[in-house]
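yo, Adenosine kinase is done. seq:
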Amino acid sequence: MASDEPKAKKIKLADVEEKEKKADSPTKETLSELSPNSLFGMGNPLLDICAVVDKDFLDKYTLKPNDQILAEDKHKALFEELVKKFKVEYHAGGATQNSIKVAQWMIQKPHNVGTFFGCIGKDKFGDILKQKAEEAHIDAHYYEQEEEPTGTCAACITGDNRSLVANLAAANCYKKEKHLDLEENWELVEKAKVFYIAGFFLTVSVESILKVAKHASETNKLFCLNLSAPFICQFFKDNLMKVFPYVDVLFGNETEAAAFAKEQDFETKDIKEIAKKAQALPKVNTKRQRVVVLTQGKDVTVMAQGDKVETFPVVKIDPKDIVDTNGAGDAFVGGFLSGLVQEKSLDQCVKAGHYSANVIIKRAGCTFPEKPDFK
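structure:
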């Protein structure tokens, strides 16, 4: 069942041939004729380990009830203790992988529309991560190495709070020449028509990002990047600006946008102006104009394309229904990408992003019900 969106506002995906219709049945879930591996993501795969803990556990590891930190030496034993002492749930995590999972959930069929590359260890947590990715119906191809263990993120829940402790470990060890350059892996890159990488991966392998970004630019496919965090805009500015000329769709939130504007000397704090200026920065593929999409929590989402800036209100939600806002940004991107890969209008992509984020913030972690209810 092909998308019935108005043609005028579509982003055209070049070189995508009209495929024969091979929908299983004309249900509303079959949103468009998609091939497996149409959407490609690359980033830091982390196994999220979620558990309801007690205050003693937080105190033992000097954790604040509501925080996000990178693991230090004193947290080394935390992960094993969490698994031993408490009832844990495992979820395939990491920003990019979360977004690819959400996009796949929104699309439903066919499975494996989303491909994901990243680095894990040869260990128990790596095996769980592979299993969880499979359950989410994403086609994960991990670079597996033995020097570092699989990256993990402990989510220590007390009441409505969750304290996140991330240990990147193996995620930091991705190697272009050991994985991305391999013929069978590069073939998966070539199959994709939309690419998404979170800014966090700029700290790991900028050469891998550039190889994918240049491929997208040369073949007139869509390359999407997320600013991800203020520290990326500040301390990894050189890497970010090496990749920026290849960016077709830029995502970020209000704090990341402010940090980016400051580093780029935009001399404005107005989010619409920031979106416009980021949109106008130099671009290699001139066949497409850059689109900049900036979210602001419960406030309007701002989108700049061409010479216009539009705003979109988010789905209203009762504050008491909010369980966990940590996955909201990843979920928004996932929803947006699900529309993009189906060649929906940009307005529909934003709508899909708002829907996904609204579902995810009512649940713990970046998790979702079996099926979306999105029209």
